[in-house]
Specification:
The complex is a heterodimer of chains A (102) and B (170). Chain A has 102 residues and is α+β, with helices and mostly antiparallel strands. Chain A has one domain: 2-Layer Sandwich (GMP Synthetase, Chain A, domain 3). Helices cover 36% and strands 21% of the residues of chain A. Chain A contains five helices and three strands. Chain A has helices at residues 5-16, 48-58, 60-63, 77-80, 88-93, and strands spanning 20-25, 33-39, 68-75. Chain A has a three-stranded mixed beta sheet. The longest helix of chain A is centred in the N-terminal third of the chain and has 12 residues, at 5-16. Chain A is globular. Chain B has 170 residues and is α+β, with helices and mostly antiparallel strands. Chain B has a domain at 66-169: 3-Layer(aba) Sandwich (Glutaredoxin). Helix content of chain B is 52%, strand content 10%. Chain B contains seven helices and four strands. Chain B has helices spanning 2-7, 14-41, 66-76, 95-106, 120-130, 148-157, 159-169, and strands spanning 81-85, 112-115, 137-140, 143-146. Classes of the chains: A alpha+beta (102), B alpha+beta (170). Chains A and B meet through helix 2 and strand 3 of A and strand 4 and helix 6 of B.
């Protein structure tokens, strides 16, 4: 019984084609509890509830075995954007990063 | 029922709110479920033998009959804020349910708690009604708002407070 992290990843990958996917088994080994971070184009224009529904639906089979699925993040690639573009004008006008710990 | 939201004092110290709400809310939520289900659809309330053990998801093929849908609709609209959870507001039996209870208590929101462990029919029916496979499930203004993750995120962003205020004022 239980579901593996790999099964969850495989289902999400094949159904939602994520740009970023992180699945963490939070069950302590029994495979009934997972935390998910997912970034996919599929979420574009969708509210958070709908995004979670999409993830739940993609894992419909697995959910029969999973007790708890925590969706930590369900974002579009634009929202996720792990490397924000350098805006030189902004950095020069707003000294938000102090160089010392004064 | 609407009385309670009026009666729940916003300025009372937390301890007092805690005690009074436990006395007022719990029997009422139980009563509501039992009366509406028993009367409306002539269904017997049988606490599931597995109820206290745990947990969600596994078997979910209860068919959502028109009567049950009708009952659930009344239930989700019975208060401005209704939380379907495992356990009660005072004795949550699941960490996720507890999280949502704590958030609602922090916001000092009057809410109805429904213990789905005590009613297998509501538990299975609501999964289908909400198109949501797990509990807790939070309803605001009769609309499904989200589960634990969404509620937490909305609490942190301030959206939850807005949604609650909108519902309270409507």
């Amino acid at each position: 019984m239980g579901v593996t992290k790999e099964q969850v990843e495989a289902s999400l990958t094949s159904k939602l084609n994520p740009v970023h996917l992180e699945v963490i088994d939070t069950s302590g080994g029994c495979g009934a509890s997972f935390a998910v971070e997912i970034v996919s184009e599929e979420f574009e224009g969708k509210r958070l509830v709908e995004r979670h529904r999409i993830v739940n639906a993609a894992l419909e089979e697995e959910m029969k075995e999973i007790h708890a699925l925590s969706i930590k993040k369900a974002q579009t690639p634009q929202q996720w954007n792990p490397t924000p573009p350098q805006d030189s004008s902004a950095t020069t006008t707003t000294p938000t990063t102090p160089t010392t710990d004064a | 029922m609407a009385l309670r939201s009026v009666k729940t004092p916003t300025l009372t110290p937390p301890g007092v709110v805690f005690i009074s709400s436990s006395i007022i809310n719990k029997p009422q939520s139980l009563r509501f479920v039992s009366s509406s289900l028993a009367v409306r659809s002539n269904l017997k309330l049988k606490p599931s033998p597995h109820a206290a053990k745990f947990r969600c998801s596994a078997s979910s093929s209860a068919s959502l009959t028109p009567q049950l849908r009708d009952t659930l609709e009344k239930l989700v609209k019975s208060e401005k804020v209704v939380l379907f959870m495992k356990g009660t507001r005072d004795f949550p039996m699941c960490g996720f349910s507890n999280t949502v209870v704590q958030i609602l208590k922090t916001l000092n929101v009057p809410f109805e708690d429904v213990n789905i462990l005590e009613n297998e029919m509501v538990r299975q029916g609501l999964k289908e009604y909400s198109s949501w496979p797990t509990f807790p499930q939070l309803y605001i203004g009769g609309e499904f708002f989200g589960g634990c993750d969404i509620t937490l995120e909305a609490f942190q962003s301030g959206e939850l407070q807005e949604a609650v205020e909108r519902a309270m004022c409507s």
